[in-house]
Amino acid sequence: MPRFVVLLRGVNIGKAKRVPMAEFRALLEGQGFTAIQTLLNSGNAVFSSTGRSALAHARSIAASLVERFGFEVPVVVKASTEFASAVAECPFAAGAEDHSRLLVVFTQKRQALVSLSSLAPLVQPPEQFAIGKHAAYLHCAGGILESKLAKALLARPGHTATSRNWATVLKINGLLRAGVA
Fold it and tell me: What pLDDT is stored for residue 73 in this prediction?
């Protein structure tokens, strides 16, 4: 059965937009998804589904979140193969000793990913920024808090993108590779 990754943007940061992971798992179960595993408390989950459309899953999960919690949450869903490809194509993985300084940016649609190129002028060496086929990558050698590009990415409004640090991306990828325990 196909596996998927769901990434929620901007939940469980401060007191706003609280989505307890137990309730998130129950919401996903209510959608008919199986083999659900959440990771951390920041809206990361993997699941199995007979449906094959990541976009349809994202729309359905977003609507369910509004219904259950009363607020909108940007949702990105990636098929396991696409997520694994995003991990494999990361151009900065080998040089990123501190995984918290490497951000991977996911979008639901390719055109939203391409639009991130407009932020490239904010890169301040020794930062590195690249847009791949499946994700964008920002290595903040001086730290995320010091990066103008990271601030622009994290503050970007709307449903276009969500980011995870490399350590989290590797943990999610590990869940996908391990399958269901």
Answer: 87
Under a CB-based contact definition with an 8 Å cutoff, are residues 31 and 76 in contact? no
Encoded tokens for 152: 């622009």
Say whether pLDDT at 136 is over 60. Answer: yes
Question: Which residue ranges form the domains of the chain, and what is each CATH number?
Answer: 3-82 (3.30.70.1280), 83-178 (3.30.70.1260)
Dump the DSSP string for 86-107: HHHT-TTTTT-SSGGGEEEEE-
Rounded mean pLDDT, 41-64: 91
What are the contacts of 109-116 at 24+ separation with CB within 8 A?
Answer: 109/55, 112/160, 112/161, 113/161, 115/160, 116/153, 116/161
Residue 20: pLDDT band (50, 70, 90) is confident
**Nearest residue to 136 (alpha-carbon basis) of 157, 148, 153:** 153
CB 91 within 8 A of CB 132: yes
What is the chain's Cα-based Rg? 16
Dihedral over Cα of 86, 97, 101, 65: its sign:
positive
Kindly report the pTM of this predicted structure: 0.91
